[in-house]
Amino acid sequence: MKTLQAQWVLRWALPAALALIICGLLFAALSWAAEKADDVATARQRDLVTLTVSKLQGAIAHDQESATVWDDAVRHTAARDLEWMDGNLGTWMHTYFGHDAAIVLDAAARPIYSFMATDEGVPSATDFERAYAPLAARLQARLAAGDTGGTSDRILSIGEADLTWVGDRPAIVSVKPIVSDSGAVEQAPGSEALHVAVRFLDRDLPAEIGREYVFDALRFSAEGTQDPRFSLVPLRSAAGATIGYFQWKPFRPGHVVLEATSVALGLMLVAIFTGSSLAGTALWRRSVRLAASQDALRHQASHDSLTGLANRAWFAEQLSERLKTAPADAAHGVLFVDLDHFKEVNDSFGHPVGDRLITLAAERMTRLLPDALVARIGGDEFTILLNPESVGRAEEIAEAIVKVLKQPFEIDAAHVVVGASVGVAVANGICDPVELTRRADIALYHAKAAGRNAYAIFGTHMDALLRKRRSLEQELREAVTARTPIEVVYQPVFAADGSGPISLEALVRWNHPSEGPISPAVFIPLAEETGLIHEIGAIVIEEACSMLAELPGMTLSINASSIELQTASYPLKVLTALARWGLQAARLEIELTESVVVADKAQLARSIRLLREAGVTIAIDDFGTGYSTFSRVQSFEIDRIKIDKSFIDDMNQENSRALVAAMIHMAQAKGLKITAEGVETAEQQQALQGLGCDHLQGFHLSRPLSRAALRSLVLGASAGAQAS
What we know:
Layout: H1 2-68, H2 71-78, H3 82-97, E1 101-105, E2 111-116, H4 125-144, E3 160-166, E4 169-177, E5 194-200, H5 204-213, E6 216-221, E7 231-236, E8 242-249, H6 253-261, H7 269-302, H8 312-324, E9 331-339, H9 342-349, H10 351-368, E10 373-376, E11 381-385, H11 394-406, E12 409-411, E13 414-416, E14 420-428, H12 433-449, E15 455-457, H13 460-482, E16 486-495, E17 501-512, E18 516-518, H14 520-530, H15 533-550, E19 555-560, H16 562-565, H17 570-580, E20 588-592, H18 594-597, H19 601-614, E21 617-623, H20 630-633, E22 640-643, H21 645-649, H22 654-669, E23 673-676, H23 682-691, E24 695-696, H24 707-723
Parallel strand pairs: 14-15, 17-19, 19-20, 20-21, 21-22, 22-23, 23-24
Antiparallel strand pairs: 1-2, 1-5, 3-4, 4-5, 6-8, 7-8, 9-11, 9-14, 10-11, 12-13, 16-17, 16-24, 17-18
């Protein structure tokens, strides 16, 4: 009997007990693991829903800036152009971005245009007003106060947005000002029109989010559910009030696994093994999905959303990692690429074309350099970390980038041509990543200074040149503050027969204490870049007016920078100086350079009109070079052209002589005075006189003179004229 009992225990009871213990422990372990997996998955889904709502709120405001930060939007809104507003601020916002409603408010927050994507279940106008009125009021107060907090290269204008109820429908409501993108359209703070964008959180939107992020039965609920089968996330306004919930059936991987293995848990050891294998397979699959989701999030955090390229942070991390572990003989190459004239593309064709251009430029570079790390670090700026095997061809690669980006882009039937400037820096072994990128940036600066659409390779001389430029910039600031090193000299302008000086041109000079005279070709561009051109211009105007006050009957011209003339206050500054010295405006002439003629046409026309209405005359300097042709200047009211010295130098050649004659005849036909610059020989004087040129200027007649020398020349000429 005992033998039989032992046999039963050994064959049945103990295996059965062991099987029950194993199954029980396995069941307990699987139950615990399933619960934890469900908790983790649900928490991740809640975080993803919260992040999605937050990104949607920011995306709506960003969508608005594509049309509200635009000169055309300011003008057409002010003109109450409903058709234009419908096409660009209403229907387009719905078609392109999926906005459900759009309202344009005037400066008093009164609606002047509204758009609704559908007529079904649309809240009333009063409901919309209750939703956007507090946001509009806060935004108008910030605009009136000049608040620009929160703006950046990505966020172009301030705004207000919140989650709220519009009637009986929950929505994201965003309010943005309609402002100028170029600054050319003047707007008093607080007078801006406002654009209201609305995206409802119920009906179609939850289903769209559910399809995109794989949420089962995602929908909006005003009260939330107590059903344990559903998970939910509260939607809160900026004030912390809960306006409703997003709820969905969460994916429960642990529960799925437990159900799949429940039958197997009732079998013997083989069945237990099979069930555990199935559970392991299911858990692995879930882990793969979670890992893929994490990889996607990491990719999003380290890559540019527009182009898919690495972003600044990821590029810096990869560069630092490579350099700190590099062998002594390893070669490194970093390129900085900047698209030339990208702003003009945005201004001419709009931001969507500009974004497409950035994407296509990125594609061309990645096709050209499939083994390199290409990153977008700013609006139109890229960096490239070359593969070590390619560093020896860095110059060839830079040239290829310039060439490939110079080729036209065909975007939405638009023929877009830009180009690129490239800076190259190379190093060997372990080196400082900050220093290497700084060198590439310096090389890029030199490529731009060389005329753009070019490349430059960093050399130690560049660093020295940059330090010298910064030193020169500081010394120029000190010179402008002291005023003494900034001197104004005067070059007389003579009648064509050489009878005597009839007017003067004021020329600015910088007498450096150690370097001697600094050419205007060097310090004037530097002054324009640093903003010192306004102070230098003020010095010239003041000195010129004081000189005119000493020489009754004489007229004088001064050169105006494009930076100055694009400033709305420039005409007032000139006229104030004339009034302070008691001078007639007709005694002053403003010379516009070629760069001014091709600048901001609207502001230039306003400045010219104000000056000419006061009596100041206007001349085009360096006429005949580049863009300053009759076809370009005919829309501006001018009084004189000054033929560039390059044409006068070549007057002994028949073609150049004929060209000068044509300029003079065309100017005479338009009733303009003509001055020839750079007259250096008697033969040139005689030829110009014979062609009918009015006035001459150049070293043959007189070099630029100091104030005292000029006074002696003019007074001597006046005394001689009286004696004769």
